[in-house]
Amino acid sequence: MKSEKTDINNNPETGRKPLLLIGIGNDSRADDGLGWVFLDRIKERFPAGKMPLHSGAGQVEFDIEYRYQLQVEDAALICRYRNVVFIDATEEVHDEGFAIRECESSGTYHFSSHIQGPESILYLSDVLFGQTPETHIVSISGYEWELGVEMCKRAEENLDKAFNAFFNRQLKPERNVNQLN
């Protein structure tokens, strides 16, 4: 039997880990790789695999997953975490070049594996496993989607802004990482 840590990195009552970051995209399609590059930067900045989740909170362990697209099976993955952040490129033009928002359950899912969004995965996590982690979406505006590993300058600027805002902003300041879900 696997023993669980009793610190903030594993909740002894739920067994759920504190944080999962999922980058969605394809780094061989120019700006579609924004989510993956975001994760690469996190790994560079926090090589020990721990980072602050909220202002004033201690460091928490995090896991990283790279996805070309979300699949129904990702519901089984996210249900094991208290906090999940999806990072993805978008064709939507945000005023700041990015948006960080809370993810709400869609109340439904799609039968096609090519159109599952974070909202559907959150819904499935609740329906199938009875778990609804605190979930956020970081959407980064992209402009070029053709094959090619180089992202455009505007997308890189948006990535920089999103990355900095992610660490300068408290996603849920009233919530303490030590609290149970």
Can you give a write-up of this model?
The two termini are 24 Å apart. The chain has a single domain, classed as HybD-like (Rossmann fold, 3-Layer(aba) Sandwich). A six-stranded mixed β-sheet has the order 2-3-1-4-6-5. The chain has 181 residues and is an alpha/beta fold. The protein contains four helices and six strands; from the N terminus they run βαββαββαβα. The longest helix has 16 residues, at 153-168. Residues 1-8 and 171-181 have low confidence and may be disordered. α1 packs across α4. 25% of the residues lie in helices and 24% in strands.
Provide keyphrases for this structure.
single chain, 181 residues, alpha/beta, Rossmann fold, 6-stranded mixed sheet, 6 strands, disordered C terminus
- How many DSSP-defined strands? 6
Number of domains: 1
Please report the distance between the alpha carbons of the first and last residues: 24 Å
Q: What is the helix/strand order?
A: EHEEHEEHEH
Q: Tally the helices: what do you get?
A: 4
> At the fourth CATH level, what is the homologous superfamily?
HybD-like
Question: What is the annotated CATH architecture?
Answer: 3-Layer(aba) Sandwich
The overall pLDDT, averaged over residues, is: 84
Percent of residues in helices: 10-25%
Strand order of the largest sheet: 2-3-1-4-6-5
Report the β-strand fraction as a percent range.
15-25%
Report the biggest beta sheet as strand number plus sense, adding barrel if it closes: 6 strands, mixed
CATH domain topology: Rossmann fold
- SSE class: alpha/beta
Supply Rg: 16 Å
Unreliable segments of 5+ consecutive residues: 1-8, 171-181
* CATH class group: Alpha Beta
